[in-house]
Amino acid sequence: MLRWLARRIIAAALVVFVVTSLVFVVTHIFTDPATVSLPLEATEEHRANRRAVLGLDRPLSVQYWDFVSGLVVGDLGESFWQSQPASKLVFERLPATLKLVGGAIAVTVLLAAPMGMLAAWWERRFADHAVLGFSMVSISAPPFWIGYLLIIVFAVQLGWVPTFGSSGFVSLILPSFAIGLASAGRLAQMTRRGIVEELRKPYAVTALSRGFSRSYTIVHHTFRNVASGFVTMTGWELTRMFTGYTVVIEVVFAWPGVGRLAIHAIENRDLILVQAAVVVLATLVVVTNLLVDIARRLIDPRVELA
Amino acid sequence: MSVSTTGGDGRTERLLEVKDLTVGFPTRDGTVLGVDGLTLNVGSHERLGVVGESGSGKSVMGLAILGMVLPPGRIMGGSVRWKGEDVLDEAVANRVRGREIAMIFQDPMVSLNPLKTVGAQLRELLQRRVGLQGSAVRKRSLELLDMVGIANAPERMKAYAYELSGGMRQRVMIAAALACEPTLLIADEPTTGLDVTIQDQILTLLRNLSTELGVSVLMITHDLGVVAQFCDRVQVMYAGRIVERAPIAEMFADPQHPYSLGLLQSVPRVDRDDRELTGIPGEPLDRAKFPPGCAFDPRCAEAREGCQVAPPPLVKTADRRWVACYNRPGEGAT
Fold first, then answer.
1. Using 50, 70 and 90 to split pLDDT, how confident is the model at A286?
2. Residues in B touching A200 (Cβ below 8 Å)
3. Share of chain A above pLDDT 70, in %
4. Which residue of A91, A110, B183, B265 sits 20 to 30 Å from the alpha carbon of A231, by its own alpha carbon?
5. Predicted confidence (pLDDT) per residue in A128-137, tens digit
6. B160, A302: Cβ pair inside 8 Å?
7. Cα separation of B71 and B187, whole Å?
8. Which residues contact A296 (CB under 8 A, 6 or more apart)?
């Protein structure tokens, strides 16, 4: 188990390295940070000047070495929009994003698991159809639209929560739901389908034939067997949240997180800051996948230690 | 039905009485009957065999006796009585299932929960269905594993199903089935898929346990060899219906229904090696195309006019012998 874990961690580190290198390729080879950060009417002289200031006139190999050695010590370059270290800007915003994703994934899991189990329990009955209906709507509606809807109803009309900002737990509720509802819909359907399938398997029929109730069998026998898939899917949803939903929802709710920072960085043509945000978010995705692998191994002893 | 429908000789107490049990599965072409008007009785200390080919409704029958049908199937009629109580009543079923009637299944590979250890699966039964607490649970678990011939029981308690051999898994299943000291054990193809030597060990184990513990067994199988080795009495099933019912020796000496005859002629016999093996002509029945008359008619060598009109009733032809065939007139109407 420990050797397996060590191998997985090394593999994850390699993935982070490859992804960050790709980010470097995009920001330094396909585009020119100096040109991007200057107004359109800037002269060639201005650009050359800016390149010299940013060290972009050095050979690419030297710049890459600089970039990689900076990564190792957490130096992600200096933002030319804010004139501060990019890593400092990103890490300042990171707790807010983590809080938001944490809230969203809590909404996802706490809604999906019971809804999936209820739908399976009442297979082809009203509750099943109701859960299916919820899932269809939540999956089809774009998160930003759900976000605006929630703001209009709960913040503007009912006035229960603030419309934007991150002032404590209450302000976390709406954006968490805006992100988590679609994920919950997908996960609930997957859970329901998994349990219904498992209930037809001989071990579940055996449990029922021993007089265990349908609810006991679902919770204690089948859910364990779909848990591995559930964790994997939850990991995918987390990944989507880090790389997509949080960016949109942070803008909608004016949430001071990494996603909104990235958007502002793009607006201000600050490629170094964009690069830093992408590196941090990509690392979170890789760490998520690593945690999913570990969780699956803990749930199912048959998972290969490969 | 009269008392003579029991296979017992008066000394046995009637435990299970299934009457006209019908299980239907809705399909695009209408409802297919998995079990069609099934009638059977099991007495105390009795080992009854039900033989039939795949798709004859044997397994559906086994579950239906516990009041269970996999969706979208449904019990459409008939009754199942356990010591006089209606098992199709959910409250009775919840009490009887696992406690008084236990069941073991064909594939021990998948009948054990893959993510629970042997010990956890026994513990759950002993705590929730028997009501044992504390150290009694572990003591009884070890006792059960020992009873079914599992060596090194304390170690095996920690094992998952995938760490055990097929024979070992079936032994665990039997231990779990016996955990609540049931009066009847329904065994659905318990030896299918196991090596021949292991099959023999499992059957011997089941027979010894049923004698020692006084458990009746309803053995569901496609294997006449299993029936010959194990049962006192046998019922032959075809297309969801019982076509013949007889004491074991008489069935093998003198099968009456053309289908039973065909079944016997298609298996090798050690005691008579002079005979050539013959198969039953035709295909096993496609259950969606139900003939209105005798279901065996399309494959029957003795089919004649009149067989296609209605299914023949199961009638008594001699003492303890029942046949459903127009060519075997009974002693009288049932």
1. very high
2. 70
3. 98
4. A91
5. 999 999 999 9
6. yes
7. 22
8. A228, A231, A232, A303
